[in-house]
Amino acid sequence: MFADQCFIDARLITPDGVSLVSRIWTPQGSGPWPTLLMRQPYGRAIASTVTLPHPLWWSDQGFAVVVQDVRGQGSSEGTFQGFGQEAADTAATLTWLRERPECNGRIGLYGLSYQGLTQLLAPPDCPAPDCLAPAMCGLDEREHWSCEGGAHWWHLGLGWGLQLAALQAKRRNDPGGWNEIHSALVDGRYLREGVGLLERHDPKGMALRWLQQPADQAKGWTLHRPTDAWLRKPMLLIGGWWDPHLRGLLDLLTTARSSGGNPELHIGPATHLQWWPETNQLLLDFFNQHLKNSPPHSQGKTTEIRLWDQGDATWSRQSGSQWSSACWHLSSQGLACLDPTDGQLLDAAIPGSGTCVIVHDPWRPAPAVGGHLSPTAGPCDRRIVDQRSDVAVFSSAPLKTGLQLCGRPVLKLKVSADQPAFDLCAALSKLPAGEEEVQQLSTGVLRVRQATHSESDSDIPFINITLELQPLLVSFQPGDRLRLSLAGASWPAIAINPGDGKQRFGPPNSDCRVITLCLQLDEATLQMAPLLVPQAA
């Protein structure tokens, strides 16, 4: 196979004199061919094979494949500066590629995460490719890449930043730095030492810059804006229910629609790095259709939005604006953290009542499990976490009829805290009829600073909060129950809130305070917002 279908490495010189290196795979026989382009920072030999087929597979399907080391990474020259550098280099690469003998002029872009956003960044006058397939990415560096609910992604932000720092150490022939970073990631020390490692080994890196910017303020953050011409091109969006960039992908769909585009969207049972096998055929059908004018492998027109149901493990076709109108109220006699039968999710016709106290102890913070931000991303059974005395649980009665929830779960309630700042972390789960398993469906977090709080206050006021959880689609059968779990931490998905109201977060330390939260449930609601956020008029 390798003897018959080898690759070549090729260089282009950008207008500012920097050499960018690409690896090119071609089919057997004589070209030119329709060409797939990926621009990535992790080394062209890897070619995103952690989720995508190797370029040799694509060349077997009749495509030339070009995987480029972006500026300042791999064998490419220059200094790596993150997303901001990519627009001009995208334009130079497309101009170069259209002149290559392997390329017949028809170009599709593909890749996930960083490689997804490089597809969308180009100068306004740059001619667009024929089609794009940006998977698991977004346009807002704060909301879609590094923060949620006013809190930085801790495990993910440090882990990704240190991976890039290690690649930089390798480029400058610093094996000691590479080993220091790698060992910290392997044994878990990065959660405590990660910021220091970034300061030593990649002080000007994008990840450290993100961690140093306030997560609860939009000022100073970059929102990328692809040109309308690019957003109107055929586009395939692939996302996962347990991927941290899912909100970004949904917002990208909304942005493309507002520009006159109509992307396909498939959200499946996937984490960021673990996809479902059928994605290979989805991508192949898409590129065959738009680069070869071949009909899709599946019969009929590709559906606009296709979602995997977490409840019955089947695919569902949705309009995108569809969501459940179900609403629940919360009730507790004060023991929701200690008695699993005390906290209740009540039908909308029954008013909520009571209060619930959650005590967050930084010595033993409530852990993050499963979901889209934790080190164990994906579906999970969270029953052990729900048994902790610092986790309040609210469960519905067994459902009398089936129910499908589709959209973004939104929790609204009043909270008071005895410290100037606090976190509220939520999880939504399914309790199947007749089983003890607690199937976690969605998680979310909100970081709050109380501007008017004084430690001398004897009567601490309640404030209204709104917490949005990860989008979902799930079906329930009669007898199933729904559960909402609330805690004051989600470690190490997010850093520990010290409670003092200052912008400094990290691992548990002696300065972190015990934080007592009081939830007022009389007007608390849990309901579903649309899957796609409506565009402002």
Summarize the structure.
Helix content is about 20%, strand content about 30%. With about 525 residues, it is α+β, with helices and mostly antiparallel strands.
Please characterize this protein's 3D structure:
The structure is a single chain. With 537 residues, the protein is α+β, with helices and mostly antiparallel strands. The chain has helices at residues 55-60, 86-98, 114-117, 155-171, 175-187, 190-201, 206-212, 228-231, 246-258, 279-291, 383-386; strands spanning 7-13, 19-25, 33-40, 64-69, 103-112, 131-135, 147-148, 151-152, 236-242, 264-271, 305-308, 315-317, 327-331, 344-347, 355-360, 391-396, 403-417, 421-431, 439-449, 463-468, 472-476, 481-487, 515-529. Strands 13, 14, 15, 16, 17, 18, 19, 20, 21, 22 and 23 form an eleven-stranded mixed sheet that branches. The termini are far apart.
Please outline the helices and strands.
Elements: E1 7-13, E2 19-25, E3 33-40, H1 55-60, E4 64-69, H2 86-98, E5 103-112, H3 114-117, E6 131-135, E7 147-148, E8 151-152, H4 155-171, H5 175-187, H6 190-201, H7 206-212, H8 228-231, E9 236-242, H9 246-258, E10 264-271, H10 279-291, E11 305-308, E12 315-317, E13 327-331, E14 344-347, E15 355-360, H11 383-386, E16 391-396, E17 403-417, E18 421-431, E19 439-449, E20 463-468, E21 472-476, E22 481-487, E23 515-529
Parallel strand pairs: 3-4, 3-5, 5-6, 9-10, 10-11, 14-16
Antiparallel strand pairs: 1-2, 2-4, 7-8, 11-12, 13-14, 13-23, 15-23, 16-22, 17-20, 17-21, 17-23, 18-19, 18-22
